[in-house]
Amino acid sequence: MGSARARIAIDAMGGDHAPAEIVAGALRAREELDVEILLVGDSSQIEAALSQHGNSFPVEIVPSEGTIEMHEEPLSGIKRKPKASINVAMDLVKQKRADAVVSAGHSGAAMAAALLRLGRLKGIDRPAIGAVLPTIMADKSVLLLDVGANVDCRPKFLEQFAVMGSIYSQYVLGVPEPKVGLLNIGEEPGKGNDLAFRTHQMLQENSKITFVGNAEGRDILSGNFDVVVCDGFAGNVLLKFAEAVGEVMLQILKEELPQGLHGLLGVALLKPNLKRIKQRVDHAEHGGGLLLGVAGICIISHGSSQAPSIFNAIRLAKEAIDHQVLERITSNYHQPAAPAAEVE
Fold first, then answer.
1. Most CB within 10 Å of its CB: which of 39, 197, 233, 280?
2. Residue-level pLDDT at 2
3. CA–CA separation, 296 vs 25, rounded Å?
4. Would you say 298 and 326 are in contact if contact means Cβ atoms under 8 Å apart?
5. pTM for the whole structure
6. How many other C-beta atoms can be found within 10 angstroms of the C-beta atom of residue 42?
7. CA distance 126 to 5
8. Percent residues over pLDDT 70 in the chain
9. 5-29: b (≥16 Cβ within 10 Å) or e
């Protein structure tokens, strides 16, 4: 790249609140994270959104045509609309004009576009979406993957998720020796279905990770694991349930705090604590999930993302770039990236 700063391509048309909230989050990231921003989408709509902020920030607009709608089948959608915003954003990474892509649009389309345009990393059969969740231990999180890229998995896929998750946990989250767990219905090695049983054996034999055994649902947020692997069906259900619990908790706090003058005084005294609680349980603070296993940095955000979530998604992308996640995964398999190919 010609610049030392990370260049992030933003799918400005993806998500329920595009482009206004996407642009607002991107501008905040441009100012606070010192990254270069490329806003991909309808030029007139993006310019209108920029005008709400005084148009004083140096960002590049990359025109595109249309988006992949949520009702569209991902693969056929990206093939029928080669100039859709997510395709153009992925092409920017492929052409080395950007270091990463952030999108709050159709997650299936984002994954399909990444596979078709960027390709898989050599040695990786299936990419996985990793989501960082809080635990009961302050300042400690857990990486859950896959949370939606692969509904059905083979044991070797989960083994690869464990390796990629360990690398991400170590170099981005700062865990010296990540402890890996396998989602299961019991702690004993013989528990679970055939997938869980066979995967357990493979993880035990893999010397590149620190596998500490099965993780039951109640263990995921215990702080005893740094990485938990599962298929995308179970992971997506868990992720959305965890997000709902966080929203319920925040709503209960709002409803149960005392009203009137005493309530206002109490809130004022508790404000620092309440802010920390929100940071720990609000999914917007985490920004989205990193698509691990493709030959490019891709952050998939929630469709309902607003400016704070987009800001944090860009932060995730920058951290992955700064800590050379792709290079570390590739070097683990001692192979260069595979060329882009058809999605199976």
1. 39
2. 40
3. 22
4. no
5. 0.83
6. 19
7. 30
8. 85
9. ebbbbbbbbbbebbbbbbbbbbbbb
Angle value at C-alpha 149, between 328 and 161, nearest 5 degrees? 35
- What distance separates the 2 farthest-apart alpha carbons in the chain? 64
- Average pLDDT for residues 148-176, to the nearest whole number? 93
Establish whether the linkage from the previous residue to 194 is cis, with ω within 30° of 0: no
End-to-end CA distance of the chain: 32
Place of tokens 């990444």: 114
Instruction: Give me 141's structure tokens.
Output: 């999180």
CA triplet 29, 35, 40: central angle to 5 degrees? 80
